[in-house]
Design a protein that fits this description.
single chain, 102 residues, mainly alpha, 3 helices, elongated, cytoplasm
Length: 102
């Protein structure tokens, strides 16, 4: 079953808005843990899902499918963002020093 055009447009808008949100993030002090950043991103995703839940159209099955597709799209955007944050955290770790040789 194909998504309704209106729902496709909403998914596209949500994807674009979420992408803008992620691109606006600036990583700086104080740093938060990777786990906390995952929680923040999940909260943002839930916010978007709940916002668009009120706007999707069609039968309940169509609405659920549209929201599921929106969640997949947001996850697709979130994964590279979280990888970038993980790399950022690694670049700010103090260098590990080998143990002194005896």
């Amino acid at each position: 079953m194909a998504l309704l055009k209106a729902n496709k447009d909403l998914i596209s808008a949500g994807r674009q808005e979420f992408s803008v949100l992620l691109n606006q993030q600036v990583f700086n002090d104080p740093l938060i843990s990777e786990e906390d950043m995952v929680t923040v991103v999940e909260d943002w995703m839930n916010f978007y899902i709940n916002y668009y839940r009120q706007q999707v159209t069609g039968e309940p099955q169509e609405r659920d499918r549209a929201l599921q597709e929106l969640r997949q799209e947001l996850n697709t955007l979130a994964n590279p963002f979280l990888a970038k944050y993980r790399d950022f955290l690694k670049s700010h770790e103090p260098p590990s020093h080998p143990p002194p040789s005896s």
